[in-house]
Amino acid sequence: DAGVIQSPRHEVTEMGQEVTLRCKPISGHNSLFWYRQTMMRGLELLIYFNNNVPIDDSGMPEDRFSAKMPNASFSTLKIQPSEPRDSAVYFCASSLLQLTEAFFGQGTRLTVV
Amino acid sequence: TQLLEQSPQFLSIQEGENLTVYCNSSSVFSSLQWYRQEPGEGPVLLVTVVTGGEVKKLKRLTFQFGDARKDSSLHITAAQTGDTGLYLCAQPSQGGSEKLVFGKGTKLTVNP
Questions:
Q1: Nearest-Cα residue of chain B relative to residue A105
Q2: Residue B22 predicted with pLDDT over 70
Q3: Smallest Cβ distance to B99: which of A56, A91, A104?
Q4: What confidence tens digit (pLDDT) does each residue in B23-48 have?
């Protein structure tokens, strides 16, 4: 398996623009997580899905953030409108069962100018 | 609020030295995971500890889980430049929501 695949690897956008981050989890994994990593706050969980259903979105910072998982092999994280303080590395991770090993993608480095 | 404190935040040493990094929680761990993250990559699981007092070894890395399951340590013997990275500990969240909460990590630099 190729592991968790995220795209794009890097994204530079202007403030106010819509940004969509994409994730393909490992086949057969039924939990998917979106994390955001910054120097100040470390690795923060934004939202996680179990069997394509959002279970906990308490980490989503604002209504500007939304996430979907239309099927077991694809998820998106959307920011609309984007702001400079959204600049961070966004990771997607998947696991076979909740609380077992989380397999991370390589991340998307987002810069909002 | 569940907190995971990692120390030190930064550590820079010479190749061949030994080091220990720590992870402490405000609550009892049900289990604890250690991850290593290399620059430009996502974190990768090193080990999971479950039982109080447990010691696990992974080559030159020794992981210890405190008897009271509120703290854990990672000891590296004879560090190599390839050990450079961010070391993160993670524990399951409390309160019924099954998710992993991460500490901020220890950024280790091993100089040649």
A1: B42
A2: yes
A3: A56
A4: 998 888 788 999 999 999 999 999 99
Contacts of A23 in chain B (CB under 8 A): none
Residue of B nearest to A50 (CA): B98
What is the per-residue burial (b if ≥16 Cβ within 10 Å, else e) of A91-106?
A: bbbbbeebbeebbbbb
**Alpha-carbon distance B111 to B9, whole Å?**
17
Write down the pLDDT at residue A1: 63
d(CA A112, CA A89): 12
Strand, helix or coil at B44?
Answer: strand
Cα(A55)–Cα(A105) distance, integer angstroms: 20
* Single-letter amino acid code for the residue at B106: T
Kindly report the nearest CA distance between residue B44 and chain A, in angstroms: 7
Q: What radius of gyration, in Å, describes the C-alpha atoms of chain A?
A: 13
Q: A42 Cβ partners below 8 Å, 6+ apart? A: B102, B103, B104, B105
Residues of B in contact with A103 (CB under 8 A): 45
